[in-house]
Design a protein that fits this description.
Strand content: 25-35%
Helix content: 25-40%
Number of helices: 9
Strand order of the largest sheet: 3-2-1-4-5-13-10
CATH class: Alpha Beta
Distance between the termini: 34 Å
Number of strands: 13
Low-confidence stretches: 1-10
CATH architecture: 3-Layer(aba) Sandwich
Shape: globular
Length: about 280
């Protein structure tokens, strides 16, 4: 390993620790927030998250499938898929998130397992080649420095005939900011680069009065071409890509309006900005 490779690995390790501390802090705020609707999960046995409900027209029937949810956070989407009949395992790098997810599963009587692991080590943590469905939901890939490596990991989890399903923030959305005059400015990199984008903010994307002690995060953007290529190189066949003009959080404050079911889109001319995308791929052999 040369010096540059060593420095890159050290930087990624630092970023992982920095991000884990931030996400550990977010867990109690998110679990107590009305946005995650934990109370409804506890009170309504058939309740599912807004995110999974949005996915249903493309996700289809998951009953009887063995599924892995990568970067599952506090487990609300994982439990939603289990309530739709899938046998689910969730994985997250935050120990606090995994504890919260296990607690919610126990309190709701949901048969779902949760494992703490770096997503790049998912095959070792969950077992390779045994899943019918690998699911990744909103706010996942931007925390990963290497999308090509992620594609290999996702593919390794699937059995032949298994399917990858992802809906995530669109890289165009992550590269822009809204100006005061209503125009959108390309402000951040669209393509993956080795060095992270660094954000320092005590806020999170839900309404909460809780404070976050570890405010710095490191994140990366990945172009649609880079994401698609990561899956093709891993031997998957792309079966669908859909772009959406809405996103399930207030991504551009002051420029977006709620449209129901937890989704937001641009107030002015929303068709000009792809906010999220859904991508599906199959492992043929």
């Amino acid at each position: 390993m040369n010096f540059d490779e060593f420095f890159r690995q050290a930087s990624v390790t630092d970023s992982l620790a920095i991000n884990r501390a931030n996400w550990d802090d977010r867990v109690p705020a998110h679990a107590e927030s009305a946005d995650y609707k934990v109370a409804r999960f506890l009170a309504e046995p058939d309740f599912i998250s807004d995110v999974v409900r949005f996915d249903l027209p493309r996700l289809g029937d998951v009953a009887g499938l063995r599924g892995a949810h990568l970067q599952c956070h506090i487990g609300t989407d994982t439990i939603s898929l289990a309530r739709l009949g899938a046998s689910m395992s969730g994985l997250d790098f935050s120990g606090a998130a995994v504890e919260a997810a296990r607690r919610l599963a126990a309190d709701t009587g949901t048969d779902a397992a949760f494992v703490q692991s770096d997503v790049y080590e998912a095959a070792g943590a969950l077992g390779a080649g045994g899943f019918d469905l690998v699911y990744t939901s909103i706010g996942s890939l931007s925390w990963l420095p290497d999308v090509h490596r992620w594609g290999s990991v996702a593919a390794s989890l699937l059995r032949p005939g298994g399917r990858l399903f992802i809906r995530d923030a669109h890289p165009v959305l992550l590269s822009v900011k809204a100006r005061e005059d209503g125009l959108l400015a390309v402000h951040r990199p669209y393509f993956e680069r080795p060095e992270p984008n660094v954000t320092d903010s005590g806020q999170t994307y839900v309404e909460t009065g809780a404070s976050i002690e570890h405010t710095v995060t490191h994140w990366w953007n990945h172009g649609i071409g880079e994401i698609v290529t990561s899956l093709l190189d891993a031997g998957l066949r792309i079966t669908g890509v859909t772009e959406h003009d809405s996103v399930p959080w207030l991504a551009l404050p002051g420029a977006m309006e709620p449209i129901g079911n937890g989704e937001y889109r641009l107030t002015d001319n929303p068709r000009r900005l792809p906010c999220t995308y859904t991508l599906q791929a199959v492992k043929d052999r």
